[in-house]
């Protein structure tokens, strides 16, 4: 095989990866932008913390700008103003948040359309370009050329709606707090297991109670707890966990008597336990206060009532959906949304030996997780439970049946967002029709 033929085969394979129309790649096409000839300038921005690199192409692919610029408003406005003299501009970034936020805000303020090229797609498209160098200038060119030649690979950048922007920022902070709480809880349980395994088994069921954290922040060793006695333990538990204060102190004292030896390092672990318990208490208190603010901000969004009317969709799930897909207008159908979330089945066929479908490993993992957990929470709803039970009766395992339910619920969610209508429970007649369809 000649070198030209080898290159043609490589290019064909990469194009198939980038441009194929299988369902599991629809998430790379979440933005339905104008066709290439609708713009006179395609500007690719390889964004950085202190500096960006801008490369602009005309519809024929000729470079009309290729320079680095500072990450500040004046520099961005100067470049965009120059490009606007040639006509309509489409600006594309490789990171829409943090280091790319200022570029997006300036472009929007100047009336420039903005889009986002996912990193994986950019790397695949970069393989089509000659050479293997990795530079800011080359990346900016790849981004601009993708906007010109492969507009279907671009994604929509979230709107500049103030309420939605605030929800996105605070929801990200809430996710950080949740991860921090999980880390601190695991560390606290590990420390308790080291000094007194039986005590850890007793308290691990109540780690989310404020009174238990108050107790461990004040007394971090079995000896300190025994010194407090039942009354002292109850006094520490009562302010924030009054019900536990009536039953848990006696159980703690009884559990402490099950171990007579003191494990080496217990004194040092006392410092760890009290410190971690105090940190975990602060994180949980901050997250509880944040939840109130998140709920208040969500209520100000016009789609809040629509989303939360659906069984299994609470405040945090509704915020996750809003911050990821917005009003759903970027998706042409429920199948498109399901593919973007990674909940659409993937068909595998090759000749006569490979035929079947499997679950997609791609998609937007945060959205997929939110929809999956929402489906699990909705099992108390009669319609959702009936659909889940039918899938289990067909031989599907628990997780597979939940994924099927999450996929079916996307049809409902998409219709709710499209029509701006709240969830309406199915009647017995419509439930029978769904049963036949399933």
Automatic annotation (TrEMBL):
Q: Which GO terms describe its molecular function?
A: DNA binding; transposase activity
Give the GO terms filed under biological process for this record: DNA transposition
Residue ranges of coiled coil: none
Transposase IS110-like N-terminal domain location? 43-197
The protein's matches in InterPro entries, at most eight in alphabetical order, are given as: Transp_IS110-like_N, Transpos_IS110, Transposase_20
Please state every residue range assigned to the domain named Transposase IS116/IS110/IS902 C-terminal.
305-388
Q: Which Pfam families match?
A: DEDD_Tnp_IS110, Transposase_20
Q: What is this protein called?
A: Transposase IS116/IS110/IS902 family protein
Source organism per entry reads: Quadrisphaera granulorum
**Organismal lineage:** Bacteria, Bacillati, Actinomycetota, Actinomycetes, Kineosporiales
């Amino acid at each position: 095989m000649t070198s030209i033929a080898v290159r043609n085969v490589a290019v064909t394979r990469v194009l198939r990866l980038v441009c194929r129309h299988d369902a599991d790649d629809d998430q790379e096409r979440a933005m339905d932008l104008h066709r290439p000839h609708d713009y006179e300038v395609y500007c690719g921005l390889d964004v950085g913390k202190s500096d960006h690199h801008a490369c602009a192409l005309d519809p024929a692919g000729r470079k009309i700008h290729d320079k680095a610029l500072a990450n500040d408003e004046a520099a961005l406005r100067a470049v965009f103003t120059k490009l606007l003299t040639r006509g309509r501009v489409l600006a594309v970034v490789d990171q829409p948040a943090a280091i790319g936020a200022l570029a997006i805000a300036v472009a929007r303020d100047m009336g420039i359309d903005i889009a986002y090229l996912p990193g994986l797609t950019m790397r695949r498209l970069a393989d089509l370009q000659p050479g293997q160098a990795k530079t800011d200038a080359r990346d900016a060119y790849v981004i601009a050329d993708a906007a010109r030649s492969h507009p279907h690979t671009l994604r929509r950048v979230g709107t500049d709606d103030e309420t939605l922007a605030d929800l996105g920022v605070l929801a990200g902070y809430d996710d950080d707090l949740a991860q921090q709480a999980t880390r601190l809880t695991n560390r606290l349980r590990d420390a308790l297991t080291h000094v007194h395994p039986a005590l850890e088994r007793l308290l691990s069921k109540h780690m989310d109670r404020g009174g238990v954290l108050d107790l461990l922040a004040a007394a971090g060793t079995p000896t300190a707890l025994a010194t407090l006695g039942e009354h002292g333990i109850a006094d520490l538990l009562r302010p924030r966990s009054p019900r536990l204060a009536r039953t848990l102190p006696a159980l703690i004292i009884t559990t402490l008597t099950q171990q007579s030896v003191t494990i080496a390092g217990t004194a040092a672990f006392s410092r760890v336990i009290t410190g971690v318990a105090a940190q975990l208490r602060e994180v949980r208190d901050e997250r509880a206060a944040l939840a109130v603010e998140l709920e208040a901000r969500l209520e100000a969004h016009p789609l809040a009532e629509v989303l939360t009317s659906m069984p299994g969709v609470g405040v945090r799930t509704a915020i996750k959906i809003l911050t990821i897909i917005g009003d759903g207008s970027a998706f042409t159908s429920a199948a498109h949304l399901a593919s973007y979330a990674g909940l659409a089945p993937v068909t595998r066929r090759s000749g006569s030996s490979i035929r079947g479908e499997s679950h997609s490993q791609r998609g937007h993992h945060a959205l997929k997780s939110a929809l999956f957990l929402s489906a699990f929470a909705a099992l108390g709803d009669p319609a959702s439970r009936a659909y889940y039970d039918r899938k289990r009766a067909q031989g599907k395992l628990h997780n597979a049946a939940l994924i099927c339910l999450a996929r079916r619920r996307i049809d409902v969610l998409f219709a709710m967002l499209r029509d701006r209508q709240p969830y309406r429970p199915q009647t017995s007649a419509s439930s029978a029709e769904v049963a036949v369809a399933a």
